[in-house]
Amino acid sequence: MSADQTTVLRLFFALWPDQATRKEVAARQQGVVGRPTRPDNLHLTLAFLGQQPATALPLLETALAALPATPLPLLLNHSGYFPRHRIAWISPEPAPAALLALQQNLTQALAQLPLRYEAPAHFMPHVTLARNAPAAPDPAMAPVAWRSSQIVLVQSDTLAQGAHYRVLAARRLEEAS
Question: Into how many domains does the chain fold?
């Protein structure tokens, strides 16, 4: 992707689910009040980078390529709500050590790059089910066995009909043998 110095992109790194997982998570959106996340946008954010120059893409792709590519199965077994942002979500509880290690590895790699990136004080892994939600989803929601097919670098564009995510680079996770 070529870009001049002034092109700025809104970027994040995420675990991207396989199609079966995407379908299962989308099914859990039934009955959740609010604006549901489009099924093709479902993901688990590892690092939100915010506005970054397009010229940083090669560095970010290199950081992505250096991440471990081992499968990271998760059990999304806990639902909750961020009242300030009115977001209904589902998450793994407790967060597996391998997921926390992957996020920490990525955060450390990003800290070494000449970017404006500030890691959050606390990583709260979750998958957004709906925005503009008035309350948390049903706590008795059936768990989802989350299988990620890849770790991705994503560009987020805000459109009138909602966010549109475009995968710019991916690191495929290898199947367990």
Answer: 1
